[in-house]
Each structure stands twice: as C-alpha cells, then as structure tokens.
Amino acid sequence: MQLNNARILLTGACGGLGQELAVQLAGAGAKLLLAGRERAKLATLTSTLGIGHSNMTADLTSPEGIAEAAGAAHEFGVNVLINNAGIGGFGLFDEQDWATVARILAINLEAPMRLTQAMLPALKAQPQAAIVNMGSTFGSLPFAGFAAYSAAKAGLRGFSQALRRELADSEVAVIHIAPRAINTSLNSDAVNALNRALKNNSDSPEAVARQVVNALSQGGGEHHFGFPEKLFAWLNGVAPAIIDRGLAGKLAVIKQHATAR
C-alpha cells in the first residue's frame, strides 16, 4: 500500500508503540485518526503530527465505543485499520481473578474483532484497504506465566488468518504482526525482571514501528520479528514437545517472578 494515500485509524495511540507508529506513519505521508483513552496525550500527539490528523477517545471494550470509533473512522475516510491497543497479563493463571482474565481477552482479542467487524463494510468499499492486527510471538509460542495473554494473541492470529482467507476475493489486505518483547511501559517491573533473568531479547518501539510500517507497505500476510524467537515459534508449530521440555527448565524462574509481583 502507498502510505501517502493511507487514512489510518490507529488504536492504542497513547502507548509507547502507538506513539512511535503515529510518528513514523505520518512521516511516510499517511493521515491518522488516533484512538486512545488519554485525551491530553492524544491532543499533544496530534498537534505534534501537524495538519490533517485527528483523534478521538473511546472505550473499545463497550458496544458504544466500538460504534463511536467506526463512525469516526467512516467520517475520516479510513482505509487502514491498525488494531494496536492491548494490555499485558503476566501472572500464574490459577492466581489471576476472572475479572483480570476477562479484561485481557476483551482488550487483546474481542475489541479488535468487534472493531474490525464494524468497519468491514466501509473498508470493503474502498479501492484499496488493509487491516493490521498487532499480535505477539506469544500467539505462536505460548509462554508459561502468560496463559490468558497467549490465548488472546493466539486467537488474534487465528482470526487474522481466517479473515485473510475470507477476504481473498476483495481489495482488503489482512496483515498480522508478531513482534517479540517491546521496551514499553506495557511491561511491568516483574516482566522486565523476568526478561533479564531469562535473557529474553526485546526491541525498541522505534525498531518495531519501522517493521510495521514496512509490512504495511509490502502488503498482506504474517510477519514475525526477532531471532531466535521466530525460530522457536515455528518449532512450536511442528514439534511442541521440544518447546515443552525447554520451558520446563525455566518454570521455576517464571514462577518466582510471577509470584513476586
């Protein structure tokens, strides 16, 4: 897609990755409708981007918020939806209350599905359109301590694959992005400590945003970022028992950090 012709609804624009995506997409010529929950932060970011951009606040976990976002996107002439909003969810599953689990699923999986469905008629009417779903390596490499989060991201990957196949006879590209850990405030202190203990790799928001912008320019499909995480995700698909054994050796460390939150 030619980004200088793109009019993009970017959710989660207040977060570390969202702000960097906004800057890089605007720099590539796209016009942005920024969505998030922090009005002041959205206003500041919109002002920084310059003329032609807009913003809105909406609760994407409510039907009213979905309808409001879809309506604003229609008025803005959106032809690209980037489902970037998300939350983390580190913790042992049997110690998480259901309200926490439900929120992880609602924001990371249900909200992007509902917003996509609400916007599909308008996107299909565009000469060219795209849906970008921001997943995670954990969607292909489910990780101990992230059961609900991994389930949500695996669901988002499955949704992206199925929808891409469903829209194969249309002009709507469906792109699934699976980065490894990103250095943003989404990571709690416990997650950062775990990553240090396990020597897990992570990337800057700037680096991930560049990869997303390149993926959107190239077109549809799946994009996994980071080595060796990309290899381990593939291996989990063909020989999950190997990953089971590898993670079993790290389980004590994971539990130590999960219970020390």
Structure description:
By secondary structure, the chain is of the alpha/beta class. The chain has a single domain (3-259), classed as NAD(P)-binding Rossmann-like Domain (Rossmann fold), CATH 3.40.50.720. The chain is 52% helix and 15% strand. It contains ten helices and nine strands. It has helices at residues 16-27, 39-49, 63-76, 98-124, 147-166, 189-198, 205-218, 229-238, 240-248, 251-259; strands spanning 7-10, 31-36, 54-57, 80-83, 129-134, 172-178, 181-182, 202-203, 221-224. It has a seven-stranded parallel beta sheet, sandwiched between helices. Strands 7-8 form a two-stranded parallel sheet. It starts with 6 loop residues before the first strand and ends with a helix. The model has no long low-confidence stretch (mean pLDDT 93).
Key features?
261 residues; 9 strands; 52% helix; globular; Rossmann fold; alpha/beta; seven-stranded parallel sheet; 15% strand
General shape = globular
Give me the CATH architecture, please. Answer: 3-Layer(aba) Sandwich
Please give the largest β-sheet. 7 strands, parallel
Please give the domain count: 1
Pick out the low-confidence regions.
none
Topology:
Blueprint: E1 7-10, H1 16-27, E2 31-36, H2 39-49, E3 54-57, H3 63-76, E4 80-83, H4 98-124, E5 129-134, H5 147-166, E6 172-178, E7 181-182, H6 189-198, E8 202-203, H7 205-218, E9 221-224, H8 229-238, H9 240-248, H10 251-259
Parallel strand pairs: 1-2, 1-4, 2-3, 4-5, 5-6, 6-9, 7-8
Helix pairs in contact: 1-7, 3-4, 4-5, 6-10, 8-9
